[in-house]
């Protein structure tokens, strides 16, 4: 069985969600454990399920709030997991702001999907290695 990691998506575009969820399962061996379209909903969900997540994938602009707002609140609350920005607005400024807030990586949805999935592959392998160490294998 391929290693898996648990992903939470914060994305406001239904088409992006429709393509991203199966792609994560197929290309990154990631199980999507939840998804929301608004900053408030993301923070509520993470408040209840943060321990069940290995990676959070954030879009920059949401129906309400921003991915950056989610990330800042996560760090303030001590929620520690891998965070990836995946946005159509991956400008130098956006990348710098995500990085300063503690994102592990930022990718452009249209031009860096291969890099995004390669990065998630490393997260999956790291998650699997950590699980094996805890299990004593």
UniProtKB/TrEMBL annotation:
Keywords: Phosphoprotein. It comes from Xylophilus ampelinus. Residues 6-124 form the Response regulatory domain. InterPro entries: Bact_response_regulator, CheY-like_superfamily, Sig_transdc_resp-reg_receiver. It comes from the Bacteria. The modification 4-aspartylphosphate is found at residue 59. GO terms for biological process: phosphorelay signal transduction system. Gene3D superfamilies: 3.40.50.2300. This is Response regulator receiver domain-containing protein.
């Amino acid at each position: 069985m391929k290693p898996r990691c648990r992903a939470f998506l914060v994305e406001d575009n239904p088409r992006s969600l429709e393509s991203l969820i199966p792609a994560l399962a197929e290309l990154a061996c990631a199980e999507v454990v939840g998804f929301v379209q608004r900053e408030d909903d993301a923070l509520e969900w993470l408040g209840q399920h943060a321990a069940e997540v290995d990676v959070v994938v954030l879009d920059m602009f949401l129906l309400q709030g921003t991915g950056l707002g989610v990330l800042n609140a996560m760090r303030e609350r001590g929620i520690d997991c891998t965070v990836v920005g995946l946005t159509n607005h991956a400008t130098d400024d956006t990348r710098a702001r995500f990085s300063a807030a503690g994102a592990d990586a930022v990718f452009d949805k249209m031009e860096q999907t291969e890099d995004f999935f390669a990065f998630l592959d490393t997260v999956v392998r790291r998650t699997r290695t950590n699980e094996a160490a805890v299990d004593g294998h």
